[in-house]
Amino acid sequence: MYDLADVIPDAEIDPGTNLLVAGPPLTGKRQIAFDILASGADRGDGSIVVTTKDSADKVLETFTDSTTSTDADIGVVDCVTKQRGIGTVDDDPRIKYASSPVDMTGIGIKLSEFLQEFYENRGLSENRVLLHSVSTLLMYSNLQTVFRFLHVFTGRIQSADAMGVYVIDSTAHDDQTMNTLKQLFDAVIELEEPADGEEPEIRTAGLST
Asked: Is the pLDDT of residue 209 over 60?
């Protein structure tokens, strides 16, 4: 079981579960997703981040700030640096590069390489995978293409007994798009727009506590 107690009290998730984190901008979706990864890293789980929004350097910085572990097993699939044409784009033990958020075949291959390496070479049986963000994928490709990609992606998480965490800006997409995508996920964390001076309200569906 994957324990989410550090983020959501008493919540546990079965291996192979895919979890959607949805909400408006500035409600802390990204930080909650990183906290879920970091709470696993502190227990010795592997962490893989597929980033379609931030560079690998920024992802590693956020991850390091979120975890207390100094030797966490972390892998980043960077889908932005090559497209921007800046910085180093050679794969290293912690970073693999896809050409862009449109390169869904490449993203899937790099994810599989990390999962295989974590299982077979590092002996990590529990791995948490973050995709940040689904909204960026939808900026570059149509819903049908993204749905097909996520169908394969979530299936890969399931077969690897990993845990998938996916972030989406719920206000950037219409209800039909959101309802279509939600079919792919086993559980949803929804963050509500906070009242002035208050914390965002968190609602969960499909989580066992």
From this structure: no
Q: Is the pLDDT of residue 6 over 90?
A: no
Q: What is the DSSP string of 122-191?
A: S----EEEEEE-HHHHHHHS-HHHHHHHHHHHHHHHHHTT-EEEEEEEGGGS-HHHHHHHHTT-SEEEEE
Distance in angstroms (rounded) separating the CA atoms of residues 89 and 98: 9
Q: Which residues of 67-86 are buried (b: 16+ CB within 10 A; e: fewer)?
A: bebeebbbbbbbbbbbbeee
Secondary structure (3-state) at 18: strand
The predicted-structure confidence for 55-112, as pLDDT tens digits, reads as follows 999 999 999 999 998 899 999 999 999 998 876 678 888 999 999 999 999 999 999 9
Q: How many CB atoms lie within 10 A of CB 51?
A: 25
CB 48 within 8 A of CB 118: yes
177 and 138 Cβ atoms separated by less than 8 Å:
yes
Average pLDDT score over residue span 170-189: 96
CB atoms within 10 A of CB 6: 14
Pairing of strands 201-205, 127-132: unpaired
